[in-house]
Amino acid sequence: MSSVKLRWGILGCAGIAEKAVIPGIRQSETGVVTAIASRDLNKAKETAAKLDIPTAYGSYEDLIADENIDAVYIPLPNHMHKEWTIRAAQAGKHVLCEKPFAIDAAEAEEMVAACRLAGVQLAEAFMYRHHPRYDRIKAIIRSGEIGEIRGIHGAFTFNNAADLSNFRNQRSMGGGSLYDVGVYPISAARYLLEQEPQAATVHAFFSPEHGDVDMMASGLVEFSGGVALTFDCGMWASFRNTLEILGTLGSIEVPSAFVSPPDSGSHFFVTTSEGRREEGTTYEDQYALQADDLAYAVWGQKSLRFEPEDAIANMKVLDACLQSASERARIIIPS
């Protein structure tokens, strides 16, 4: 473990921060959580006491002004990502921003430009792709063992319909299943295929009682060579969290593709003419690996595994998916 630590500030008391990212930073080789902020000082103090965080702030402004903070993690509602990423960058803080990166690709471009101008590192919090099993999956694909890729299918659904006050159910706050969980299979397909898609077609269920956000969506994202991602995502459905890569000679199934619990989160299955085998890697906290990746980039030891321009590209696909769902049309994705 390094004696030098990246000092983190947490902008908001979101569940993902408390349950996953803060523990991940503490499990990392590089990070320490120094402060947490909420617009409600009492809430910040309660969370800080519960999680043994030294400093609590009653405003985000106070946290990013703290000279003892090197980097901030932003788990705020989606419509606030742009503002606080830019403000943090202007204060000289490096940024790990929760997915979806922004409301649209134009916002994402502004965020990336602001961080480049400020000379700070910026990363999107797609934790799953830092897990070493994805390196192994990519290696299998590149080896040709499952042949040429013919298609990818991803599913990420859960049931949050009863929580009507949740920001995910507010259109003005960037709510909806495409924003919240649809971004995962989109990101995974782009990562595994190593190319950008050409068009998207999405059918969605918009719920009036949930702010008219998409509570369920099914999509087709077209890549070159006739290859496609088919996916479904939802916030009013039974929990699923899977990915399948289909090749001409075999397939790869990832049962816990994005959210990966310690007891089952590092295995996957490969099926070929030789049979079906289980593969796995030693469990590693993907949130810790994500924190280390940013820290090493901050210290100039390594480049980010995923530069922030990747977030712009993912948002372009999401923009097309949202437009398609709204217009019931096939949408060309700009390059």
TrEMBL record:
Recorded family membership: Belongs to the Gfo/Idh/MocA family.
Residue ranges occupied by any Gfo/Idh/MocA-like oxidoreductase N-terminal domain in the UniProt entry: 6-124
Keyword DNA damage: no
Ranges for domain GFO/IDH/MocA-like oxidoreductase: 135-253
Source taxon at top rank: Bacteria
Keyword entries, A-Z: Oxidoreductase
Source species of the chain: Paenibacillus eucommiae
Pfam families noted in UniProt: GFO_IDH_MocA, GFO_IDH_MocA_C3
Protein name stated in the entry: Dehydrogenase
